[in-house]
Specification:
With 202 residues, the chain is an alpha/beta fold. The chain has a single domain, classed as Alpha-Beta Complex (2-enoyl-CoA Hydratase, Chain A, domain 1). The chain contains 9 helices and 10 strands. A hairpin with a 2-residue loop joins strand 1 and strand 2. Helix 1 packs parallel to helix 2 and helix 5 crosses helix 6. The longest helix is centred in the first third of the chain and has 13 residues. The protein is globular and about 45 Å long.
């Protein structure tokens, strides 16, 4: 359900579970984290999904009541992405929801299709977000808007997400746009990333 394709110095991890809106099981989260850690030498790491409408609906509904919604696996995955020395890109082929936010927030760059929407309904469902998600979300869109999304449960469309700073570009083919990026060596990318301060948006 997680496909890995390596082309030169580019590694693409694809969530392939369209019959379940690309929702994530514990096994899939583990596979994603393993795939990210294995891409330590990649100059470009791309996360994407299959299908025309949904990147990921978040936690698998069958496993969520059994503890998946609060599993440390989500934090393990986002931490592995954040620690990746290469350039990390979320190529969002559609809607991003729930716990799947974490992996996109941990990426360096987020690209999405025009019809994507974004929502993180933890308050409505009675869960807290994963520990690092509020901080990363606040750095991208500011504290009031982070509360709008997390506490208010507001759904953003692609244009509003772009205005907020949640995503960086709206493109017809995010995967192709991600592959068009031409980063330098992994060490050079890591050095540049270290020079860029993670300043919260106001």
């Amino acid at each position: 359900m997680i496909r890995t394709v390596t082309e030169g110095d580019t590694v693409t991890l694809t969530i392939d579970r369209t019959d379940k809106a690309n929702s994530l099981t514990a096994a899939m989260l583990s596979d994603l984290a393993d795939g990210v850690r294995a891409a330590v030498d990649a100059r470009l790491l791309i996360l994407t999904g299959t299908g025309p409408r949904v990147f990921s609906a978040g936690a698998d509904l069958d496993e969520a009541p059994r503890g998946l919604a609060v599993s440390p696996l989500w934090e393990e995955l986002s931490g592995a992405i954040a620690a990746c020395p290469g350039l990390t890109v979320a190529a969002l082929n559609g809607t991003l929801a729930g716990g799947a936010f974490g992996m996109a927030l941990a990426c360096d760059i987020r690209l999405c299709v025009p019809g994507a929407s974004f929502f993180y309904p933890v308050a409505k469902l009675g869960f807290l977000p994963q520990p690092s998600d509020p901080l990363r979300l606040t750095r991208l869109i500011g504290p009031a808007r982070a509360k709008l999304v997390l506490a208010g449960g507001v759904r953003l469309d692609a244009e509003e997400a772009l205005r907020f700073g949640l995503i960086d570009r709206i493109v017809d083919d995010p995967l192709a746009a991600a592959r068009d990026l031409a980063p330098g060596s992994c060490d050079h990318i890591a050095a540049i990333k270290a020079m860029i301060p993670d300043v919260p948006r106001r």
